[in-house]
Inverse folding.
């Protein structure tokens, strides 16, 4: 194989950048992490993701791949020699896509909405999120997750969800999100415990204290916005 | 191959159902179309898509696959003997996912937002949509679309975008959306012309007059909502 040039335009606190790091780590790909300051955005970022101008962007032998879930799909296919991120059966693969989409839209997006909202709107979002966790638990059950959607190794849906776990203490503390209990959602809690111990997460997840401090800055920004 | 049992829970006017029909037609899969009345929702729909309770749902030998883009991915993989919906190269595949996601979020979602909004908010959404069409044109150019993202046959990104074309006269007439001109976005206009003539679209796209009448009902509902 030719020499690989792999760079990741990243920002340490971004859950989306964490997805890209988790994918690269899970595949054992060597890469250079380029930390974006974001203010101002680097010329490299603007050129490599002209549509969204956002991190993460994977640069592989000069080709730019933006968007966290597109990066995870790409990493899976560009380095096929390591354990895949999907099952082989088309129906099981479709269900992984289904649940990954659910995690993106019904867990992450509703969390961000809840974090930014106030009063009744916030309460409604928190209630919706709680119910969505119970629905996600039904997905874990259907996949007989042990402890991951992908079995004992992490795959696409796991990488999609994992950064939520990195942010979980901040979300609970600052945004007031409520998880179902371990009795109500045992698979979800097993996932949370297992992903925290995963070698790829040890690299991808930032220091909790540092993330908490960053979360407080974000909260002040959200509180100041109308 | 065993006898196939393929059913699609559908609603004739739904652009998302049209994606599923386009995928099945492009692959030459024989299927039974089950038209949902939606009010009330059928027991079959509630059971086969308990998470969202929405059409389309593909039922393949008893297995239920919800969500339009998940269905398109599934159809591509479950019937691999016909022309695929993706290129083979991982980078090109990643870019198809990137542009399909753009079409979903930046074309469809912004159109629905523009259609429902009023006053300044509507104007802002229409302007954003116009700019997004120009960005989409840059995607067509990068893929050297002839006339489709997938070349001369339709693929994942094409199927994602195609139902927009079915609804285009309604969107222009009732929601006031503005497309770039054929000079500004020649590939987009070529796509629109080509997809209208595609055999799969002849099946998937409903009668224009009937859709226009349905659009007027929707518009009244949106106008009545605050």
């Amino acid at each position: 194989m030719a020499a690989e040039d792999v760079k990741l335009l990243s920002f340490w606190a971004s859950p989306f950048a964490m997805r890209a790091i988790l994918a690269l780590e899970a595949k054992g790909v060597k890469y250079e992490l380029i930390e974006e300051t974001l203010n101002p955005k680097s010329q490299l970022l603007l050129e490599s993701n002209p549509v969204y101008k956002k991190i993460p962007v994977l640069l592989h032998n000069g080709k730019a791949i933006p968007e966290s879930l597109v990066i995870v799909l790409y990493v899976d296919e560009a380095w096929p020699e390591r354990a895949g991120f999907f099952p082989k059966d088309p129906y099981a693969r479709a269900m992984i896509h289904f649940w990954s989409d659910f995690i993106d839209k019904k867990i992450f997006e509703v969390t961000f909405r809840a974090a930014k909202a106030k009063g009744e709107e916030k309460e409604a979002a928190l209630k919706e999120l709680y119910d969505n966790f119970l629905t996600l638990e039904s997905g874990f059950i259907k996949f007989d997750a042990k402890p991951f959607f992908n079995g004992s190794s992490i795959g696409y849906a796991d990488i999609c969800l994992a950064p939520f776990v990195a942010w979980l203490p901040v979300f609970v503390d600052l945004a007031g999100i409520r998880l179902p209990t371990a009795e109500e959602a045992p698979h979800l809690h097993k996932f949370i415990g297992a992903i925290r111990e995963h070698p790829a997460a040890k690299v991808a997840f930032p220091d909790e204290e540092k993330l908490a401090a960053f979360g407080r800055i974000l909260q002040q920004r959200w509180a100041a916005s109308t």
